[in-house]
Amino acid sequence: MIKKSFSYIGISFLNFLSLLPLSVLYQLATFGYLILYRIFGYRKKVVRDNLRNSFPDKSPQELLKLEKTFFNYLANLIFEVIKLPSITDKELERRVKFNNLHLITDYFDRGESILACTGHYGNWELGMMALGLKIPSKAYVIYKPLSNPAFDAWFYKTRIKSGNVFIPMRQTLRAVAGTRNQVTMFCFAGDQTPVKDEAHFWIDFLNQPTPVLLGVEKIALQTNRPVIYFNMQLIKRGYYEVDCYLVSEKPAEAKEHEITRATFERLEKIINNNPPYWLWSHRRWKHKPDNAG
C-alpha cells in the first residue's frame, strides 16, 4: 500500500513536470546529468564496459568523451519522455521529421501490411508517437511492460495518445493473428535482450557475441510482410529526423536468419556512425555463450 501511494505521488509529480515547456525541462536535464553521472554514477560501469568492448580501437580519451556525451543525452532523453503526456500534435510534428515515409504508405495504399523495427537509439518513444500521427493505418507497437503497475499504466496512457496500439511482448502472435484481415504495421524494438532460457541464436554485434530475438523474422516468414527499418537521428536538441529503409521485400524468399542479421547490421552501422545516442546503460551483454572463456 505504501509503495502504491509513493507511485501515485511520483506520477503526480511527473504530470506536473510535463506541463513545463521543454526549454525549462532541458535546464532541469542539465542538473539531471550531474545527478546521474557525477553524483550517483548511474550504471556508469555498465556504460563504460559496453563502450570499451564495443570500440576496442578507441583511446581512453575517446571513450570518456563518448561516455559523457551519452549521459548528457540520457538526461535530455528522460525529460523529453517526461514531456510526452502533455506534448501537442503540432509540437510532435515540428520535432520529428520523416524523410521518406512514402516507403510505408505505398504499401498501405496497396492494402499491404508491413513489419517495422528499430533499436533503442535516439528518442524512440517520441518517434513512435509522432509516427502515429503520420500513417493512415494502425501501428501496433510491441513493448515490454514496466514492473511497477502504476507507472506502467501511466506510461501506457501516454504512449497511445497519438493513436498507436501497444501490445505486450507475450501477446504479439495473438495480436498478429487477430488483425490478419486489417492493414497494419507491427513495430518492434529489435535490440531487446532475450531472457537467458531464450538466448538460442547469437550474432557478432559491436565486436561481441550477442544473443538476439528472432520474433520479427519468424513473423515475417509466416506472413510474408515486408520488413522496414527506422533510423532516428538527433539533429539538434529536441529535434529528430527519421529515415525508412527496406530490409526485406519478400521475407518468404529470405534465407534463414538473413532478416535478423540485416536489421542488426543496419543498427550497428547507425551506432558506429554516431555512437552516443544508443542506450549504452542497458545490460545488453549480461548473457554469455556457453563456450565463452
What does this molecule look like?
The chain is an alpha/beta fold. The chain has a single domain, classed as 3-Layer(aba) Sandwich (Glycerol-3-phosphate (1)-acyltransferase). It is built from 11 helices and 9 strands. It has helices spanning 2-18, 22-39, 44-54, 60-83, 89-95, 102-109, 124-134, 149-159, 172-178, 215-223, 258-273, and strands spanning 96-98, 114-118, 138-143, 165-168, 184-189, 201-205, 208-212, 227-236, 239-248. Strands 1-9-8-2-5-3-4 form a 7-stranded mixed sheet, sandwiched between helices. A two-stranded antiparallel ribbon has the order 6-7. Helix 2 (22-39) crosses helix 4 and helix 3 (44-54) crosses helix 4 (60-83). The protein starts with a helix and ends in a 20-residue tail after the last helix. The mean pLDDT is 94.
Key descriptive features of the protein:
single chain, two-stranded antiparallel sheet, 9 strands, Glycerol-3-phosphate (1)-acyltransferase, 293 residues, alpha/beta, 47% helix, globular
Secondary-structure element sequence?
Answer: HHHHHEHEHEHEHEEEHEEH
User: Which whole number gives the mean pLDDT?
Assistant: 94
Specify the biggest β-sheet.
Answer: 7 strands, mixed
How far apart the termini lie comes to 46 Å
**Helix fraction bin:** 40-55%
CATH architectural group: 3-Layer(aba) Sandwich
Q: Give, in spatial order, the strands making up the sheet with the most strands.
A: 1-9-8-2-5-3-4
The figure for the number of domains is 1
Radius of gyration based on Cα positions: 19 Å
User: Would you count the extended β strands for me?
Assistant: 9
Under CATH, the topology can be stated as Glycerol-3-phosphate (1)-acyltransferase
Categorize the overall geometry: globular
